[in-house]
Each structure stands twice: as structure tokens, then as C-alpha cells.
UniProtKB/TrEMBL annotation:
Organism phylogeny: Eukaryota, Metazoa, Ecdysozoa, Arthropoda, Chelicerata
Origin superkingdom: Eukaryota
Organism: Araneus ventricosus (Orbweaver spider)
Protein name as catalogued: Reverse transcriptase domain-containing protein
BP-aspect Gene Ontology terms: DNA biosynthetic process
SUPFAM superfamilies named in the record: DNA/RNA polymerases
Pfam family, one: Peptidase_A17
Length: 349
């Protein structure tokens, strides 16, 4: 083990030893970053757009062109050994150009081109049903004595729930499991125009059987959406999801935030039964009887389950299940009901 340990590694070790404990300084910074994200984020033409989380002046950032070019040639060598990988890679870039996820940069790629070039590589996921090849970027790439893009960005606070306690253990409670993921989650969030020049990458201009870089010019492209490999991308995704769900302030939606880990959704539920109806009925607290139109209906429904002699854990019949679900949907609107304190609003004081 080296006698001199990297400061970041020591900090990481300390944070792991003190799980869940943050200094007031860190808490203040996290609040500032959340406010910064809200200020920078807009919803335009059906899409959220935001800025990168800069912590230092971008002027000190070298464009990293030579390293990105060298890494592209290394990738080309890999393509020559694996034709299918190249075809998949090329198809992804062509589709992203078509979908407006990627666009051509307005500069000839060289050492004087402004911004930053990210090397890229393939991540192969054979276990995936759909996307088996994903293009990932290396925003930590830098020359000796220089800084990388990630060096100048905050990673942002961790908004994802604790994986073991909040996700995995809760996932094992219910009998029925559900899982899903948000398709192209990162790529659905736009990056503001001024920051896109820092998300450039290199690719061959003409696509042949293989990417023969020796015989064709290299083109500069840039990401219009949030890329994999930039350290603030997970925060941007999580913060955007929360911003969106705030538009739908229903109880179920709020609870589902704790079932999301990055772009993956995991939860488990029990089948609705007579026990479920009684349990939910017992949660209602209405000492003044203001919600009587709602509470009477659930009590009548519960009475119906007894008349049919349903067992505690027996699934509800379709007609009762439908009526109960309709009642639950109406209960969501009860939180919007407001009552004035005085009996007589026009009474003189």
C-alpha cells in the first residue's frame, strides 16, 4: 500500500464509516445545489432542460482532443475484431442523431476547438432484454497536469433511497412483485445549449463496413441530452424525476419515490382482500364527520364483504375490487377539500 493515500479516497473511507451522517457544511452545499438545479431547469416543448452543476470556472478546462482521438482509434481496433459491436455502435449513433439526442458540432475537431471532448466506449449488457450495448463517456479523462470535466462539476447530493433498507428489503415484503425501468431515462433530459460544447465526442464522418479512421475525416458531435459518465448525471436524473412527480401530489405517487433507484422501479404489493379494506377503513380519521360521504361508502363496502362470507385473505371479487379502487381514487381528492374555520363568513366582527 502506498505511503501516501489520495485525499478523495480517505474522504470516501470516512464517509462509509459514518453512513448517513453529514456535516452542516455538506448539508448547506446540498441545499444550494438543489436550489441551483431548480433555477437552471425549465420545461420546454414537453421536455425538461437543465445545466451542468459547475463548481469552477470552465476556462481552465483543456479540450482533451488528443486523448479523445487516441481513444477513438483504440475503439476502432476493437471494432475490427468485433463487427457486430461496430454495427450496433454505429446504429446507436445514427439513431441518436435522428432522434435529436446528438447533433454535429459547429467546429472542425482539433486542439483549438472550444469545449471538451469525451472519450467513449461500449458497455455490453448481455442480460438485458432490449439495450445490450450502451455508449458510455469518460468525462474524467484528462492530460497530465490538466483538469477533466468531472473535476469541475459537483456530483450533487444523493437523492436515491438507501438500496438495501429502502429498496431490497421492502421489495421482499409483498407477495406480488413489480419492476420496471424508465426507457432511456438519462437521454430524455435535455442539456442547455451553452453547456453542450463540453459534451463533445469524436466519430468518423462516413460509415463503412468498419470504422476506417485512416481513410475518412473525423467529425465532432455533441450531446444534447444528459450522458452516461458525467458525475452529476445521476443527480440530474433523480432531481428531474422528483420535480416532475411534484406536479402530481397524490399519496401513491409520493410513496413511489421511495421505490425508485436511479431509473429502476421495484415494489411489492399484497392482493386486495377483506383485511385490506378493513385496514384502510381504520386509517380514516374524521372526528367531525366532514368526510361522511366517503366513510359511509367504505363501511357499506366492508359490510358487503361480510355478507358474502369472504375469508380474510381471500382476493376481492371483481365487482367489489372495482368499487373499492374507484373509492380509493376519490379519497385522493379529499386532501384538496378545505373548510373555513368560522361558521358565518359574512358575520360582522
Amino acid at each position: 500500500m502506498d505511503g501516501k493515500m489520495d485525499n478523495d479516497k480517505i474522504n470516501e473511507f470516512w464517509e462509509l464509516e459514518n453512513m448517513g451522517i453529514n456535516s452542516q457544511e455538506n448539508i448547506n452545499l446540498e441545499m444550494q445545489l438543489l436550489e441551483k438545479f431548480e433555477e437552471n431547469t425549465t420545461f420546454t416543448n414537453g421536455r425538461y432542460e437543465t445545466k451542468l452543476l459547475w463548481k469552477d470556472d470552465q476556462s481552465q478546462l483543456n479540450n482533451n482532443y488528443e486523448i479523445a482521438k487516441k481513444r477513438l482509434f483504440n475503439l476502432n481496433d476493437k471494432f475490427k475484431r468485433d463487427k457486430n459491436l461496430y454495427l450496433n455502435y454505429k446504429e446507436i449513433i445514427q439513431q441518436q442523431l435522428k432522434d435529436g439526442i446528438v447533433e454535429y458540432a459547429n467546429c472542425e475537431p482539433n486542439n483549438t476547438c472550444p469545449g471538451y471532448f469525451m472519450p467513449h466506449h461500449a458497455v455490453i449488457m448481455e442480460q438485458k432484454e432490449t439495450t445490450k450495448v450502451r455508449i458510455c463517456f469518460d468525462a474524467s479523462s484528462k492530460s497530465k497536469g490538466q483538469v477533466s470535466l468531472n473535476d469541475l462539476l459537483y456530483s450533487g447530493p444523493n437523492l436515491n433511497p438507501e438500496l438495501l433498507l429502502r429498496i431490497v428489503l421492502k421489495f421482499r415484503i409483498g407477495k406480488i412483485a413489480m419492476c420496471a425501468d424508465i426507457r432511456r431515462a438519462f437521454l430524455e433530459i435535455g442539456i442547455k445549449e451553452n453547456d453542450r460544447k463540453y459534451l463533445q465526442f469524436l466519430w468518423g464522418q462516413n460509415n463503412g463496413t468498419y470504422l476506417d479512421l485512416e481513410g475518412q475525416p473525423i467529425r465532432a458531435l455533441k450531446m444534447k441530452r444528459v450522458p452516461y459518465g458525467v458525475n452529476c448525471s445521476p443527480f440530474i436524473l433523480a432531481a428531474t424525476i422528483r420535480t416532475h412527480l411534484k406536479k402530481y401530489p397524490h399519496l401513491e405517487v409520493t410513496q413511489k419515490l421511495n421505490d425508485l433507484y436511479v431509473d429502476d422501479f421495484l415494489c411489492s404489493v399484497e392482493t386486495l382482500s377483506k383485511q385490506s379494506v378493513l385496514s384502510i377503513c381504520g386509517m380514516l380519521f374524521d372526528p367531525l364527520g366532514m368526510l361522511t360521504p366517503l366513510t359511509v361508502r367504505i363501511k357499506l363496502l366492508l359490510q358487503n364483504t361480510w355478507e358474502r362470507d369472504l375469508q380474510w385473505d381471500e382476493p376481492l371479487p371483481p365487482d367489489i375490487h372495482e368499487t373499492f379502487q374507484s373509492w380509493l381514487d376519490e379519497v385522493d381528492t379529499a386532501s384538496q377539500i378545505s373548510l373555513s374555520r368560522p361558521y358565518f363568513l359574512n358575520a360582522e366582527t
